[in-house]
Write a structure and sequence with these properties.
With 261 residues, the protein is α+β, with helices and mostly antiparallel strands. The chain has one domain (52-260): Fumarylacetoacetate hydrolase, domain 2 (Alpha-Beta Complex), CATH 3.90.850.10. It is built from six helices and 13 strands. It has helices at 3-19, 35-49, 63-69, 122-127, 151-156, 205-218; strands at residues 53-59, 75-80, 84-86, 90-91, 100-109, 129-138, 163-166, 183-188, 191-197, 228-233, 238-239, 245-249, 255-260. The strands form two sheets. Strands 1, 2, 3, 5, 6, 7, 10 and 11 form an eight-stranded mixed β-sheet that branches. Strands 4-13-12-8-9 form a five-stranded mixed β-sheet, with no helix packed on it. Strand 12 (245-249) and strand 13 form a beta hairpin. Helix 1 crosses helix 2 (35-49).
C-alpha cells in the first residue's frame, strides 16, 4: 500500500468510528492484503485520531474468540487512551454491534521490549512486566459483519477494540500464582454468565504476552514502559445489553465490575 491508500483506508475506518456507522468492507483499492499492511493501517488510524496509545490488546487467543470473529489465530491492536477506563464505571452501548463482554488478565509494562533480530522468550517478556490487572473488554467493530471480513481487515480496524475496563494493580505476589488453572467466574446482574481460566488464553496468559512481543517485533514495533496489555478472553464472550452489570471474580486476585448504558 502506498501512503495515499494507507491514509484513505485509515480515514474511512476513523470516520465510521466517530460517526458510529458501519461499512461492509474497505474498498478493494485500499484493502490491506497482508498483516503488515493491516497493522500499518491500524497505526495510521491511531495517528489520525490524535489519541495516545495506552497499550495493546490481543484478540482471539481462545478457540471461542477465534470463532466469534472468524479468524484462525490471534491478532493484536493498539488501545487508545480515551477508551481505557477504571472499573465500576459505566460503558455506553449505543450502536454497539458485538454486544459482548470478555474477562481478561492484563499486564502493565515496566520496561521496553524494542524490535530486535531474534524472538523474545516468555521469561524475558514477563521480566519486563510491572503489574497484573483484572480487566473486562467491551469490543465493537466498524464492519456490518465482523465475522466475515477476515483477519487483515479486522487488524486494520484495531481487532474490534473499543472499551477496556481495568482494575487497580493486584497485590504483590501474583507472580507465584499459576495463571493457567486460575479460575475466572463472571456474573451478569448477579447470575452466572460464564466461567473459565487462564488456560483459555493461548494456554497461558504469559504465552500470550510473548506472542504479542514477537508479533510486534515482526512488524518493527515494540512494547513501551507504562503500556497496558490485555491478553484475551478467559471466558467465552458473554452477551450484554444496556442496563446490565457485569462482575468478574478472579478469586484471590479480586474482582472487576462494569455497568452498561
Amino acid at each position: 500500500m502506498n501512503q495515499h491508500q494507507l491514509q484513505e483506508a485509515a480515514s474511512t475506518l476513523l470516520k465510521h468510528a466517530r460517526n458510529r456507522t458501519r461499512l461492509a468492507a474497505l474498498p478493494d483499492a485500499v484493502r490491506p492484503a497482508t498483516r503488515a499492511e493491516a497493522y500499518a493501517v491500524q497505526g495510521e488510524v491511531a495517528r489520525l485520531s490524535g489519541r495516545l496509545v495506552a497499550g495493546w490488546k490481543i484478540a482471539a487467543t481462545s478457540k471461542a474468540g477465534q470463532e466469534h470473529i472468524g479468524v484462525e489465530g490471534p491478532i493484536a491492536a493498539r488501545l487508545l487512551s480515551e477508551h481505557v477506563i477504571a472499573g465500576e464505571l459505566t460503558v455506553p452501548m449505543k450502536s454497539n454491534v458485538m454486544n459482548v463482554a470478555e474477562a481478561e488478565f492484563a499486564f502493565r509494562m515496566k520496561s521496553a521490549l524494542p524490535p530486535r533480530g531474534r524472538p523474545y522468550e516468555i521469561d524475558e517478556v514477563m521480566d519486563a512486566v510491572d503489574t497484573l490487572h483484572l480487566a473486562i473488554e467491551v469490543p465493537d467493530s466498524r464492519y456490518e459483519d465482523f465475522a466475515r471480513v477476515g483477519a487483515q481487515q479486522l487488524i486494520a480496524d484495531a481487532a474490534c477494540a473499543l472499551w477496556l475496563v481495568v482494575s487497580p494493580a493486584v497485590a504483590d505476589g501474583w507472580r507465584a500464582t499459576d495463571l493457567v488453572p486460575h479460575k475466572v467466574v463472571a456474573y451478569r446482574n448477579g447470575s452466572l454468565a460464564g466461567e473459565g481460566s487462564g488456560a483459555n488464553v493461548l494456554g497461558d496468559p504469559r504465552i500470550a504476552m510473548a506472542w504479542l512481543a514477537n508479533e510486534l517485533n515482526s512488524i518493527g514495533e515494540g512494547l513501551q514502559p507504562g503500556q497496558l496489555i490485555t491478553t484475551g478472553a478467559c471466558v467465552a464472550p458473554m452477551a450484554v445489553a444496556p442496563g446490565d452489570t457485569m462482575n468478574v471474580d478472579f478469586g484471590t486476585f479480586g474482582s472487576v465490575e462494569v455497568s452498561f448504558s
